[in-house]
Amino acid sequence: MEINMTRADRLKDYVRGVMDRKDGTMLYNQYKDDIQNVTPQEAFEVFFHQLDRGTTPKKILEILDKVIHVFHGSLSMYIWEKPPKDSFLDTLMKENEELENKLSSIKEIIKRKDFKSNRLELLKRIEELQQFNAHYVKKENILFPYLEKKMEKFSGLTIMWSLHDEARASLNKLICLLQSKEPSETDFNAEIGNLFFILYGLSHKEQYILFPAALEVINEEEWIDMKKQSFEYDFPFIEKPPMDREALSDMADEVVKEENSFIMKTETGELSFEQALMIFNSLPVDLSFVDENNKVRFFTKPKDRLFPRSPAVIGRDVRNCHPSESVHVVDKIVEEFRQGNKDTAIFWIQMKGRTILIQYFALRNAQGEYKGVLEVSQDITEIKRMEGEKRLLEWQ
């Protein structure tokens, strides 16, 4: 029985052939009609298929650019509606344009053919490229999650995330090279070529695959939500876009009852009462909340409490929870917080051979009104001893 294969199925076979190192010309001729009509959505599908087969993103990167190069003719001719001015996607596109302008200016410096004299200027321009990391972080933390919720094939974005990491690593290597006492011009030329290849490649993959595909599956309301979230990050090399009325509107926080549990719904997620309490009590800190009327309203019960607390303290005036000798300090903190002069107060003490950090934070609502104080106490003895890095999981 003949199986009706779609163009995406045949393109998957083509990419499998490339992965298996089959003859490139033979493969191209066999799948020429499909290659010349590939769409951004199909490009996502064929690379996700490789991940689904168990191929690692690192292994896919070995053939990614070769395949994208073959697909380029069709992808570059693909017609898609460009995003509205100052939308989330529009700002990402403008950031790419400015990145390419920065890369062009670096090329002009390299053309001067005097590496030693231009080293410091090159270092300054290349260090400036670190700002572009905000572009990748916005993709990873805003755009990618929205796409992954739409279709399984967008799990393939892990491949693009790996490319982000390659760009970061190449940039750091280049900066370290230029900061060294006697940088090698040969090494510099090799690494700057690698960096340019990665950065231009990422920009083109966004322009021809990621952005067109995203516009086809994400709705207007979701784009507005993404724009609002993007203001938590920088906008490398461009002016921050104006925040429109829709982006200014906040998601209403509320508590609703579902079956036998109360659910706290906020802009940053949902928690049941039980989940919230587990989180509070699992934190390696003591938390105490005093409201705007100076009354103790809540404290957590972590596994290892630092200071004694009993339920009888609830509703008590905070000044009565401290020795008389330190009440003036409590009054000073509360008054400075209430007046808006300060937002934090920090102390540390020695107790039973341990170093205890005690921090006070002013709590304010969305309108900036003072709503109380959060006291956070933490044993930082082991934290103070930390040096270097620990990247491996080593349970004792």
Describe this structure in words.
- This protein has about 400 residues and is an alpha+beta fold.
- The chain folds into 4 domains: about 5-75, no CATH class; about 90-245, nmb1532 protein domain like (Four Helix Bundle (Hemerythrin (Met), subunit A)), CATH 1.20.120.520; about 250-280, no CATH class; about 285-385, PAS domain (Beta-Lactamase, 2-Layer Sandwich).
- It is about 55% helix and about 15% strand.
- The protein has 15 helices and 8 strands.
- Strands 5-4-8-7-6 form a 5-stranded antiparallel β-sheet.
- Helix 5 crosses helix 9.
- The longest helix is centred in the middle third of the chain and has 33 residues, at about 185-215.
- The radius of gyration is 28 Å and the shape is globular.
- The mean pLDDT is about 90.
- Pfam families: Hemerythrin, PAS_10.
- This is PAS domain-containing protein.
Q: Topology, please?
A:
Elements: H1 7-19, H2 24-30, H3 32-35, H4 40-52, H5 57-77, H6 88-110, H7 115-128, H8 133-150, H9 157-179, H10 185-217, H11 220-230, H12 245-248, E1 254-258, E2 261-266, E3 269-272, H13 273-282, E4 286-291, E5 296-299, H14 327-339, E6 344-351, E7 354-364, E8 370-379, H15 381-384
Antiparallel strand pairs: 1-2, 2-3, 4-5, 4-8, 6-7, 7-8
Protein name: PAS domain-containing protein
Domain PAC: 333-392
